[in-house]
Amino acid sequence: MEKLYNLLQNLSKPQLKLLKVHLRYLSIRKEPDTHLIKLSELLIKEKKGVPSLEICSQVIYDKMNYHAIQKLKSRLLSKIHDVLLLDRGMENRVGEQDELDRYVVIIRRKVALYHTLLMGPGNMSNLDAEMEEIIRLCKKYELFSVLCEQLKYKKLVNGFKNGKKAFERVNAELQFYKRCNDTLEKATDYYHLAVINSDFSGNNNKKDYQLFLRECIVELNEEASSLKSPLITYYIRNLEAMYYESGGNMEVTRDVCQELLQVIITNKSVCRKQRIAVVYNQLACCDIQLHDYEKAIENSQSAQKYFIRNSANYFSALDNQFLAHFHQLNFDKCKLICSALLKSTLDEVGEFRYAKYLFYQANVLFMNQNYKEVLQVLNRKMELTKDKIGWNFSIRVLTIQTLIALGRMDDASRHVSSLIKHDTLRMRDKAIFRILRMLERQGFDGLRLREKLEQEIKLLTTGKNGKWDPISSELIPFESWLCQHYRIQLPDQIPLNRHTLSILEGD
């Protein structure tokens, strides 16, 4: 019953209206099937959760009739599917559904009709016209697999009607689109393998990952050069963006993403709102890493317009907007975005992301000097603590910084002692760990270590001990905090991030 309930709950109002008409007036029976109508109304009106089979059976039959309610459920599901495949059922989703997705369904429905007519009795005079319409639409939307099937039929029909030359002409066209289909399948496979490798391999096999991407790009460019397919180009540009991003070349990554956006927007065979949104979100990430925070805000807001509101992707774009505002030191905006992020449910974003939003809130509170509230947030059990290398390390560092700000040096010392020195810590995290240990041995008195701290800050700021990443778990650059807390002024020639500049200018 859950599948049927969820389907009905997600139908638009026009689709529900069409279903009602279909159930009442388009039945082969003399009278409408009142049982079907009752079941549909029960499931539509129930908002608290999925009613059980027993409840549905009691409402409709006044008793538990398992066999009857199962048959009724299957019949209603079939009726809903019929409605969704009607022209009006498709039209009712215009605005929600992309043109490309709508026409994929229309094309496949036309293919089903063509085969029904082909196998049916009599000589259907409009069969050739149906076939040509399917071929035209398949070319327009680059549905190569279906196109090849239809060209096989056309090859035979034209051959029998017009002879060998007609057969060979269509066969040459078929061979071209087979190449298109084979290259597209290869491109999609390479793209998904790249995503899987990125998700599961991390930085462990970075060189192998980059080599794989480079080989894929070279091979696909060679094969695609004569095909002129926007859809294949879309996948190649995605692989190129992954390649340059994995190498840390964010300027080129941003340029490739701009090209990718144009490919999506200007080609009907590629254009989907979801794809547009994903690229805008990628652009926002590039902008953040290039410290172009105004542009990052603009691109993350553009992504939110195209993503489904309150989806995981929508919150990902909002996440990027938060980071851009945070690095601009616009903490009032950050508070508002944090509130919006924390209104999401665990089902919508998952435990890990929700914990990340709590950590964002703690960082905003820290920058606003609400230190006791910071500890209240950080003391909550968070899914992030399972990530020993990244987020867990940053949570522990922020806790130590907060305890120092509160003057609780003994507690800060205990936290430094328990800070896990993991062999796989990033170079930058190892440097932060070493500085905290050094401070802890001196009772966090920076005056005794001023010269040493200046050297360490210089190494962190210039990236020699690992460059600060604005989309990492280290929201507040550690060198910025050192400068602020220990009132350290660096030479003008040292390149500073926005946080450090702001702090030093305030001094």
What does this structure look like?
By secondary structure, the protein is mainly α. The protein is built from 25 helices and no strands. The longest helix is centred in the middle third of the chain and has 38 residues, at 164-201.
Q: Quick check: average pLDDT?
A: 86
Distance between the termini: 65 Å
Number of helices in the DSSP assignment: 25
From the helix content, strand content and strand pairing, which structural class follows? mainly alpha
Q: Radius of gyration, rounded? A: 30 Å
Low-confidence spans: pLDDT under 50, at least 5 residues? 503-507
Please state roughly what percent of the residues sit in beta strands, choosing from under 5%, 5-15%, 15-25%, 25-35%, 35-45% or over 45%: under 5%
Number of strands: 0
Order of helices and strands: HHHHHHHHHHHHHHHHHHHHHHHHH
Sheet having the most strands: none
**Share of helix among residues?**
over 70%
**What general form does the structure show?**
flat
